[in-house]
Amino acid sequence: MEADGEHVTLRDGSRVLVREVRPDDRELFVAGFERLSPEARYRRFMAHKKRLGEQELDFLTRLDHESHEAIGAIDEETGEGVGVARMVRAGDDPDQAEAAVVVTDDWQGKGLGGLLLDRLTRRARELGVRRFTASLFTDNRRMLALFDQLGCMHKHREDIDTVAIAVDLPTDAGDGSLATALRSAAAGDVEAVPPPR
Questions:
Q1: pTM to 2 decimals?
Q2: What distance in Å separates the CA atoms of residue 28 and residue 49, rounded to the nearest whole number?
Q3: Which of 10, 113, 139, 140 is the one with CA 20 to 30 A from 40?
Q4: What does the pLDDT profile of the chain (197 residues) look like in tens digits?
């Protein structure tokens, strides 16, 4: 990805700038959060949430781009932030990272989530990450079914409502099976793990 980002045309003709998240993106996150429906907020943060606090905004925008990376998309027409894919490496295992994606409600179904996850997967490989993990609601059948189809998913129930999954990233950069599954998952409007609170 170029330093200032990558210009991409989505399948419906919409254009986005895809780039790493920066500290000056705080207002994009605040505005994007406001455009999420209550259901999308709940799926993303796994809790009812009315606003993002200052510490959360720091977490979301102040990244080291090695142990914590995020790739965002900005609508080229309006300048609004419309989606982000994020990974946070496990402190005790740098080969593993929690992964998440969220796309604003009005941009879902355009292939943006899959695009962001594809770029995040590429970046993860560059950084030496070998496995993505996520916590999902047990009724999130689309995402669970997609990971089952990969043949490399490990899962266990965390509690009555959530399941933890782990997916080994393909070692061959030409193997698009993970990226294909993640694109399909994103097209199904699926979100993954929340950031730490």
A1: 0.81
A2: 17
A3: 10
A4: 555 899 999 999 999 999 999 999 999 999 998 998 888 777 777 677 788 889 999 999 999 999 999 999 999 999 999 999 999 998 889 999 998 888 898 998 888 887 888 898 889 999 999 988 888 778 766 556 545 544 467 778 878 888 888 888 876 655 455 555 554 544 444 444 334 33
CATH architecture assigned to 6-187:
3-Layer(aba) Sandwich (3.40)
Helix-, strand-, coil-residue percentages of the chain, each rounded to 5: 35, 30, 35
DSSP string, 114-132: HHHHHHHHHHHHHTT--EE
Would you kindly state where each structural domain of the chain is located, as residue ranges? 6-187
Q: Residues near 160 by Cβ (< 8 Å), separated by ≥ 6?
A: 138
